[in-house]
Amino acid sequence: MAHVETPLVSVRGLGKRFSGVTALTGIDLDITPGTVHALVGENGAGKSTLGKVIAGVVRPDDGEMRVDGVPVTFRSPADALAAGIAAIQQEIALVPARTAVENVFLGREPRRRGLPDARAMRRRFDELRESLRFNVSPIGSVGVLRTGEQQKVEIMRAVARDARLVVMDEPTAALGVDEVEHLLAAIKRLRERGTTIVFVSHRLEEVKEIADAITVLRNGELVTTRPAAEISAPQLVEAMLGRSLQSAFPTIAPCSPDAPVVLSARGVRRSDVLRDVSLEIRAGEIVGLAGLVGSGRSELARALFGADQLDAGTVEVDGEPVVMRSPKDAIDAGIALIPESRKDEGLFVDATVARNVTMAHLHTITRRGVVQPHRERAEVARAIDEFDIRPGDPRQIVGTLSGGNQQKVLFSKWLLRHPKVLIADEPTRGVDIGAKLAIYEIIAGLAGEGMGVLVISSELEEVLGLAHRVLVMRQGRIARELSREDANPERVMHAAFGTETAQVAA
Ligand SMILES: Nc1ncnc2c1ncn2[C@@H]1O[C@H](COP(=O)(O)OP(=O)(O)OP(=O)(O)O)[C@@H](O)[C@H]1O
Ligand SMILES: [Mg+2]
Questions:
Q1: pLDDT band at 505, cuts 50/70/90?
Q2: Is CATH 3.40.50.300 correct for 9-241?
Q3: Are 216 and 239 in contact (CB under 8 A)?
Q4: Considering only CA atoms, which residue is closest to atom 22 of ligand 1?
Q5: DSSP assignment of 124-150, as one string?
Q6: Least distant ligand from the CA of 401
């Protein structure tokens, strides 16, 4: 084929360093208009940085960039937007107190006689919602929406800005299975309209499904760019890691049916999001919690952790009732929660790795209320080593770590406490395949040592691969319980959607 299309975006010799860390070096890349171009690589490989350079969020140190063959220098995201490039960041960036409609049109409100035209905004919002088939409420502040919903608002905003190229940094990371399907369908519709997408994701199946071309990054370098059809998932993993990997779940030791119950919840209710939920977790048992986004999974996690007030119900740890007025009560009772949203609930992004790691268990490093620096150093060094946090500098500000490494900090923060019960809500979200397997090993190891674990995940294979027992939630209730032997994707999905026939329903 002689026909060569001018790339929409083309970069040559692109480099970026952050105070000594090389995030990108010598990147040559062409992005063909009207395609979905995926960026894959391990945590810290440079995917987000490359996306940010393209979208004008980060200024490169070296190299040049062209749009439609014309050299450009973006000094800000506004410059990129003027060239038709918008970005959806890895961490959500909405104005929490405003509505979805306001966020979508923020700074570019349709106007009438100089004033924002609320009606026109609402009409365009509805059109957008219709064309993307996103079921997002126009009213109420977006701050109270679930992460998956907020992400949709961000996508709508990019589309509303008539972007020709949208950089999507892990847009599916926070979405449930059904929502991922919607999003991938929406991306396909955008592509049909001629929009170009730069798509960053750790989920290789969806990359394979959606991408036309795939670029693999490793340690800030571009390893290869290939048509998606010409590279298999194992080849991708090998290119990402620079070695081959048997991706498998660790051996899960059987859990004794008469191991003591470490966590027991009975008749838990909270408005209409949790309707009479009861469950038990035994020492050494990994219970998986599946269900669609909105089925009540995260709400249950928050309730068990004392983050939300219960309308009714009791929670016991080791047979002792726990009065849950706040997370502190849960923590004191031996429950740890790895929350769904690391930014809002889990991490202090402006503080160092060391502070974040030790924050949740100051008592182990203090003496009469004073931090003992040698103990702190030892604990932090252990965490960095055990969880392979990169870069392994305790003084690094957490907000500057790559997404997956932030997740590892969050994990270590809670686990150094040795809780009796661990509730892990989307524990591997945004984590690369290597780190993911490490987290699976950690979870299996903790259960092996007698911890009770509740794993909530939108990735079905994660739930099925780890759990001794799977609970499927639907509409605020536990709709079905499946043993490890009986659990399979079809059964779980049927229970989640409520499409199973009456006789198999629990
Ligand atoms: N603002 C910053 N300050 C300092 N270092 C940074 C900053 N942003 C990125 N880095 C570093 O640059 C490297 C590449 O980070 P980047 O966020 O691009 O990785 P990534 O491929 O998106 O990873 P992940 O899959 O974990 O999101 C990492 O070593 C990271 O710590
Ligand atoms: Mg990233």
A1: very low
A2: yes
A3: yes
A4: 48
A5: HHHHHHHHHT----SSSBGGGS-HHHH
A6: 1
How many angstroms separate the CA atoms of 425 and 176, rounded?
12
Q: Which residues surround ligand 2, an ion (CB under 5 A)?
A: 48, 90, 403
Provide the 3-class DSSP secondary structure of residue 424: strand
* Pocket probe mutation, ligand 1, options 17, 19, 21, max atoms within 8 Å of Cβ: 21
pLDDT of residue 353: 92
Q: What is the 338 CA–ligand 2 centroid distance (Å)?
A: 19
pLDDT of residue 493: 86
Confidence at 82, pLDDT banded by 50, 70, 90:
very high
Cα 87 to middle of ligand 2, angstroms: 13
Average pLDDT over the chain, rounded to an integer:
87
Q: How far apart are CA 5 and CA 184, in angstroms?
A: 25
pLDDT digits (tens, 9 = 90+) for 284-339: 999 999 998 889 998 999 899 988 888 999 999 999 999 988 888 998 899 988 87
Contact of 203 with 29, CB cutoff 8 Å: no
Contacts of 278 (CB under 8 A, 6+ apart): 265, 266, 267, 268, 478
Which residues pair with residue 474 across a beta bridge?
477
**Start-end ranges of CATH 3.40.50.300 in the chain?**
9-241, 260-334+420-506
Q: Is the pTM of this model over 0.90?
A: no
Cβ(46) – ligand 1 distance below 6 Å:
yes
Q: CATH assignment of 260-334+420-506?
A: 3.40.50.300
Q: Of 48, 222, 347, 428, which is best to mutate to test ligand 1, by the most ligand atoms within 8 angstroms of its C-beta? A: 48
